[in-house]
Amino acid sequence: MTDKLILPSTSEEQSNVSTTGYEYSIGPKQSLPNEANSPYIPSKLYSESLVYKKQQVALSSMAFLFKEMISQIYNNSKSSSEFESKLLNYGSSIGLRLLELLNIRASVPSNTYSRSSTFLSSNASNPSSSNNVNSISNTSNPNSTNLNDISNATNVGINSSTNINDKNYESSESLASLVSHMRCRDLKIIDILQFMHGTVWTYLFGSPSNDLVKSSERENEYMIVDHEHMLTQFISNNNSCDYFVCGIIQGFLTKADFPCTVTPHSNNENGIDGGVIYLIKFDKQVLERENLRYGS
Amino acid sequence: MPQYFAIIGEKDNPVYEAEFTAQQGLSGQGQQGFPQDLKELNPFMLHASLDIIEDLQWQTNLPAHSTTSGTTGGGFLRSRNTSNLSNCYFGKVDHFYGLIITAYVTYSGMKFVMVHGSSTATTAQVDDNSVKLFYQEVHELYIKTLMNPFYTPGTPISSSAFDSRVRTLARKYLNK
Amino acid sequence: MATSEKLSASQSRSLKITGEEIWKNKTEKINAELFTMTYGAIVSQLCTDFQRDYNKVNDQLFSMGYNIGVRLIEDFLARTALPRCEDMIRTSEVITKCAFKIFLNITPQVTNWSPSNDAFSLILLENPLSEFVELPMDATKQLWYSNILCGVLRGALEMVQLDCDVHFVSDILRNEPQTEIRIKLNKVLKDEIPIGED
Fold first, then answer.
1. What total number of domains does chain C contain?
2. If DSSP codes are grouped into helix, strand and coil, which group holds residue B54?
3. I need a surface site. Which of A102, B13, B131, C103 has the fewest CB within 10 A?
4. Is the distance from CB of C68 to CB of A65 less than 8 angstroms?
5. Which chain A positions have a beta carbon within 8 Å of B139's beta carbon?
6. Is the pTM of this model over 0.80?
7. Measured in whole angstroms, how far is the alpha carbon of residue C185 from the centre of its chain?
8. pLDDT in tens, A190-215
9. pLDDT in tens, B16-41
């Protein structure tokens, strides 16, 4: 196999340097001597900042993409249940990413967040700044706080203003360096559902969901009510396509160790489109844990 | 002071592992790793601590107890100075013949665990603040990894860019 | 820049204003990251479905884009009410300053005109489709991650009687210096709306 030949032009120098990553079958690699001097491995992914840039695209672009995804899945499915479970998986892969992403973003004190949002909101509060990306507006931007539903008041004012500027300069690389306390992991059903209803919904659709309801009949059932159903509003009445958002909810909750199944139901009354109700049924073990740990 | 660090997935599978050693002198000759016998034990010690972590994971009073009462409240192993509102960083969760094990749990339940060795015969020391910062920054790198649509959650992270960044963080926070 | 020389400055500016005005006031918007992640889920699933045959993935993305393009053009014309473009120079300006602006809120640069002014390149300085993406090693030489864009352009242009070849030349995801899409006019189609196309 020619592939296995050593490439003379490239292999010589690199063999001494740790250019390979973690290898499962080999186990942990030890630090190499002079590791600190080894070349920095460039990476687009790892040099992108996780700071929320609040970028937007047209809803119609999303709708076109969504419809094309739907027909793609539809053509590859033999039954409606296969279609629904495939669509659910797409959503679920997004939900589990949002779980980590939105929580770490919610850990950043709100006053540091305004830096990035002034850049985009073309807000004139910072006209003298030559470099908007790394500058900070000391007046907290009201639009920027919606991600932080927990109070980070304890963090405010612990840094002198010069310190804040230094820290923000670094932040183009690292979000974690802005965080003094990571947001608490949600341990109770009600806490994580409120995060879903508030923070996650606002992130996805621009405002909190219309309602978060606990079933009066069954202890493990909760409902998120969404009048807008932004993604499926242009698609005719069948609820099948709402399995995408079900997947987002289910992926998010399940990865946070609140395993559940989520199904969509239409909220139509007297022929008026009342949007979608997402019914969340938690697995038994979730309630058992909750009773055991925090039970009354 | 050497460390063995691992990211452990849902099914107790290793997603990433690394060993860090302090460098002494420019030539790097004075490296102090784990003695060979301990090195082989590291993964076992780490796995033995997973049950403890899984229990701590669901405690609501994690930070409060460790700041105020120290040895009472069932949290005797945990560090006393993790005075914060967070429940991601657990501090010390276990120890084994002078080695200390610290842990951190992400929002999706990935476990970051580290065995801290000691440079001399004395018991290992852990600076909670820098260990916490190390974990937080690795957490962020983990999230970036996760954001890549081609990464399947729970599978080993083989990216050399990830590896080199974690090692840079280790030098910054753990082996200054 | 070459672009402003090709088209009079005032025409160019007026298209820019049109695009910005529609984006700002007449466009319902959604979080770009949801869009990014949805597209990411689609591409990675296709790579699995086609067992990492990236040429097939490219084709599939292109055809999805084509389906979008032939519909999207109506939406675009209805919203902009722009008259027919008299040449490719104006077409290139409308694509970048209006279409990309209105749908993706980005404005690619137009460059590399062919001597006969029938082919040009779009340089994407930002690309909302490819944020937080790192291609697998085996894909870097074959996969055009954002190939759906080529399909969209091809489909939309065809609906306005411009039969064009649209393809990626380079992509920063492949560690190339820039992301470049090439658009080349083959011929202007007869001015008839195909019957039965929906």
1. 1
2. helix
3. B13
4. yes
5. 104, 176, 182
6. yes
7. 14
8. 999 999 999 999 999 999 999 999 99
9. 999 998 765 444 445 567 887 778 88
